[in-house]
Predict the structure of Reverse transcriptase zinc-binding domain-containing protein.
Amino acid sequence: MCVGNGEKSKFWDDNWLGDLRLKEKFPRLYLISAQQAETIANCDFWDGFRWVWNLRWRRRFFEWECKHCEELLVLLQKVCLNAGTEDKLIWSCSDDGSFFVKSFITSVESNALGFSKTRHTFDNIWQGIVPPRVEMMGWFLILGKLNTMKRLAQINVVGANEVTCALCGLYDEDIDHLFIHCNYVFHLWNKAMVVGEIIWVKPKGVRSFFEYWCKQEVVRVGRRRWINCWFAIVWVICWIRNQFIFERNDISWENAWEFIMYQLKEWEMLNKRRKEEQSTIVQGATSSLEPVVNIEYEFSWWICDEYVASKQCMAVGGYLVNAENNIVVLLCEFLNADSRVNVLVECIEASV
């Protein structure tokens, strides 16, 4: 919270002074305060050009409470309000205080793993090559936040005697056991390694296993399909585990592998269909240029050419707007850097 005139910020309830709310930092003073629900502006007043705090209490202080009051007043002396500026929320995880989804994700990943440089691991998740719900599950899995029996027992959702793995029935079901060390899932991972012709040993944890998986150069399968395979296996493991718990369906690992292959084919078909739809949109945008060429000043064309370092390619985009400033045609595409000039020339010629 960035405080301006103090009219929208709660004195005790909002986090505006330090890392904690004042009622958490000074719980005893909050209990005897006569202004528990008041805003900052109602807890003080302007005496000319000087800001004076006017805190009211339900009773006199005990001797030991005076020390807390003095600490509070020392903190308040550092505050300088601005009568001409409104209070506003700021996002502490970005430099300019603005909220971005990327900054939120980076903050969550850094806090969960204990260090800030986590992009090398998570860049392989947000690729858009599997459905968003599968990407989200993989993200929770690597962060260690996926609900297993052991995690549910820790938050008192299930009893401490209900944490046994549903697939093998031998060990406690935590993330590393369920997705790597369980004898059932070992057959699935081993089958994938045989297909990829990779010699491997069981890794210690899910995150290190995912990093190892993404570093493999599997020429026979292809990198894109290889990463898809990791998502398909963990997705099917989670599905089979839920089938056993809620439906009491006992599925063999051979049948599970067949379902993994089915998921891979289904996701590849979805990606192919999405590319075809994008190609149709681009073709429609190109053909829509012809009828409006002779209408002077009715339409305008804009080209954006930007280098995207994370994808090692060029981003080319453009749109047509009518006299009411409504977008009629929209076009964007990622391109290899070497084809940049030719595509720009084609787009400019089409627009002219």
